[in-house]
Each structure stands twice: as C-alpha cells, then as structure tokens.
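Subject: Protein record for review, amino acid sequence with backbone structure tokens
Why sent: The fold of this protein is of interest and is recorded here as tokens.
Enclosed: The protein record, placed directly beneath this head.
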Amino acid sequence: MNIFGNRAAVMPLAVAATLAIVVPQASAQGLFDMLFGGGVRHNPQGEFPPPPKYKPKPKPDTGGGGGTRISGPSYYTYKADRLVRVDFAALMPKPQPAAPQDAAFVPSVTGNAFAEAIAGLSDYELYAEPDIAKALIAYYSANPDFIWVSGTAPNSRAQDAVRVLGEAASYGLTPADYTVDVPAAAAASATPDERLKELVRFEMALSARVLRYAHDAQSGRVDPNRMTGYYDFPPKPLDMEGVLKTLAHTREVRTYLESRHPQNPEYQALRVELEALQASEENEIVVDPKLLLKPGETSPELPKLLTLIARNLDDEMGGDYGEVLARLGKSEIYDPELVPVIKAVQKRAGMKGDGVIGPRTVASLAGTSKADKIGKVEVALEELRWLPSDLGSPRVFINQPAFTASYIDNGEVKLKTRVVIGRTTNQTAFFYKEIKQVDFHPYWGVPQSIIVNEMLPRLRNDPGYLDRAGYEVTDSRGRRVPSSAVNWGGYGANIPYSVRQLPSEANALGELKILFPNKHAIYMHDTPQKSFFERDMRALSHGCVRLQDPRGMAAAVLGTSVDYVVEKLKHGHSTENVTRTIPVYVAYFTAWPDMSGNVEYFGDVYDRDTRLMQALDATEAVRSPAS
C-alpha cells in the first residue's frame, strides 16, 4: 500500500488536456494547509495527517462501517513442498523368462544392463520434490540408460557432479541438501545383483540431487511469492528432463552445473565475500546491534563503543576529544560530555549527528558481527537467484535498505540518489519490471486505501474539503461530481468514486514521476517533502519510491539531459515514453556489493531477512532425512 497505489489500480484520468500549473508558495506547512485547510499541523511521518480527534456525529449504519480499513499485504507462514516417494513402477520391465546366471557378471552401459538393474528399485525409498520425482520417471522412461555409471563403478561424470554438490556452501547453499552416498569399490563378497542394485540406486539418487541443485541454483530454495504479498517474482521454469539429457551427453559437468547460478558480477562478489567471511575470525568487539542510548542513559555496551572510537582517533579528533575519552572511556553512563564525541563520529560517517546512539551509529563504529554478515550474504545470494541471471544494462537499481536508487550503464554508476521508501506499515514491495514512461507535472490518482483509511474519516464530517484542496472526484462513469455532494458516511471499504489531485507544486508526486507498470502501483517520483532526504532512516512514505534527484533520474532513463527535463517542465503536464529497454529493480538487499565488488551492509528495515531465514529453515526441515 502506498500513496501512489497499492493493489488497487491507479485512478483513471478524466482530463487529457494540458493544464496550466498552479504554483503556490512551496513549504511543508503550506502543502498541508492547502490539502486539508488551515489549522492542520504538519505531520512528518506521511503525506496525510491522522484522522480528526473529534468524535464524528452519529450516522445511520448503511453498511459502510466507521472502522472499515483496507489492509496491505501480509506475511505468511512459509510451507515448503513436501517430498514424495519416487514411484519407480513405471520403469519396471515386464516379466521375462528366467535366464541362466553367468559365471562372471560384467555389466556394461547399455540399455539391457540398465533394464536388468531397474529391478533393484522395486523396494527403494527415494524421496524428492514432486516435480523432480516426475522428471526422473519421465527421463528414464524415455532414456533407459545410466548417466552416472560406467561398467561396475561411478564414472568421471558422477565424480565431477558429486564434487560440485559438495561445494554448495560456497554459494550459500546447504551441502546436506545434495548429499549422495557414493558406492565404494565392489566387495569381493557382493553378488552381481547386489552390486547392480547399489549402482542403480546411486544413479537415481544422484540424478534427484543434481536436479535439486540445478533448481536451487537457478531459482532459489524458497518460492518468494509464498512468503508475502510484498514479493512479486515471475517463475523461472527449469526443463528438468533437459538438464538430465544435457548431463548425459557432456563431459563438462562442473561447467554446466555452475552455469545454473546467476552469472552477474554482483553474485560473484557476494560469493567472494562469503568465502572471506568464512575464513575470517569473529569481531574482537561485538556491540548489540539494536542498542538505543540517549544522553543520561546507562548501558554496558557504551564502553565498547568508546574503545572503538578511541582506537580510530585521527589527529584532529584526538586533539578535540582525546582527553574526554581518556577520562570517560570506561563509563557506562552516557555523560553529556560524550555527546559532542558521538556527534562528530556520526557526521564523519555521513549521518546527521543527533547524538543519539542507535543501530546505524553502532554499525558505523562496530560494524556487523561475522555471524550476522554471513547471514546477510547468504540471504542476498538467495534473493539474487530470484532475479534474472543477467541484470541488464542500462538498469535502475533501487536498494530499499540502503535508501538509494542508482542508474547503472556499462558497469558504471552514472547516477546515485537518496530515496524515501514505504513505512513499515506501508512497505515497498520487492519486484522488477521495465521503465515505460515519464510524466511531467503529473496527476495523482489517490488509491482506494488512502481514500478509505485516511481521507474518509474527515470526509464524513467535512464532505467538501476535497473541492477546496485541489482534488477532483469522479463517479464510476467518469463524471465529475462535487466532493460536497457525496454522502461519504454511507460508504466503507468499497467507495464507487475516484479521487485525483491536480498537477501543482503542492502535488504529492512533485514535478514528475517515472512509471514502470506493476500490480502494486509503485513508481518513482518527486516530492514536496524535501526534508525527508536529510534523515538517515528514510522508510517514511506510503510505499512508492521518492527521489532526491528526480530530474537526474528522468534524464537518465530518457537518455537526455537535465536541461531537457527542465525545459519539459516549463510546459505543464505532459508524458514521454521511454523507448529503450531499461529494467528497474525495486530490490531489498541488506548486503550488496558496489561496482568495485566491495560489499556494504545495511539494516533490515522491514525484518525480511528474518522471515527469509525462517522460510529456509522450513525448507531444510522438509529436506532433512529425519523428516
């Protein structure tokens, strides 16, 4: 849900003509006075003030219900696909007359040898995901031959596959998910039938685990769309029979299996970071990452932070604060004398320097623990598997936890700007689409969620305020109606009217928006609330992505100059299509590499890493042999 749209479609435009732009004096207070009339205080947490505190007059109950609200997407308890027992009955040969046993059995990689071996699967309990179980039977029914066995032993192809599966941890995967018992050399006491049974079971087990690995490498271990309505990813189909056909005819098993992983530089950089973390030692000083400490308060974590500050003093800060740190460095009380020290450290780290010690201050001083970093990188690798292997160029990449949007072309960041994303109660979704259009001096079609949740409480008592505040109301046929003529008290969550705000300097979308059509009705746009960009934590909107440099981003996606954008803005409302293919990723990564491969870490503003780890745990529980 967001001010610019949620699952409800953006309201249709009723006016197509170019409108003259109203240019009132721009200020945050002026915006709210204009939108809601005089006497309304500026609310820094969103575009709309809370519902009036006065009690509404009693109205007859017409089915609307005063407490009706439209809720946003929810998070689900993740349920992984249950494994099924592979039904080998379809592979069983028809009964044949008994043949005399040879004195010495020498199986070969022929259809006849495989047909003989199939009998060893009659009581074999192999469990796999339903689609993998189906693919195994389909492939071996059409191709009754070994892939992984030559003669009386696993072949080199099998050895390569087992090695790749065993290295799964280097990709942030769990090696136990792909474990296969490799047959040892045939024992002297084993009969030919016993050896053949062992080999055919190994064949099926390895094929099942190779298919699981190929699926996980390409698409991830969990289906993100099952986790929450905030995730929206198209399926990445895998031709599992095709995988086995390829492996049956190639000697480059390692190359093929590794090619199933994303092939972009970001994935490789995260792998390098994971390897370095796994080989590193734990941080010497670990500070509670959720610490919140104000002047005058006490915490045993404070001396740890002060020790880290003292270690990294340069000459300038040492001269200013060395004496204070030497005297109060062991204090658990956040003494007022320490406040200038913390402010200086915060400003040096690019924060606003408010003197309050919070998670961002802790992260800048103490970093993130080794365990937390490994968790973030493993989560990031999983999330990258949900995206296309080639991210495209040019592209726009919005990383919500970093509160940034970047325009990237030919491996270079051409533009990087701060953004505001949705509040925790109005979260921005995680998805990708293609940029299609730039709207100059746009209309704002108010989503039904905003009308119901935030406007309706006032409209029930002041039905004409939309008329005064620069909004248009249209009925289901697109006809303009005065806001004052609508009986707003008669409606609940289903309101048969559309509301839009006219272009103006005070429009909630500012001077332009950048569209990439999606079911969440999320887009990038300007905003009158410029002060939000000065904050460190910028999860403050109703869900859309506000840009600190909207003109620069518009120029980038249109392949033109900022001067061109400025000229377009002089001529009122208009639209321009984006003619190039430019994917936009509205992404969520708490670990992400810059273009040089250096991985940066960010706070989990929506607590989504935790939810993904729970989904991964649920998947592991299903795959565990114990289950």
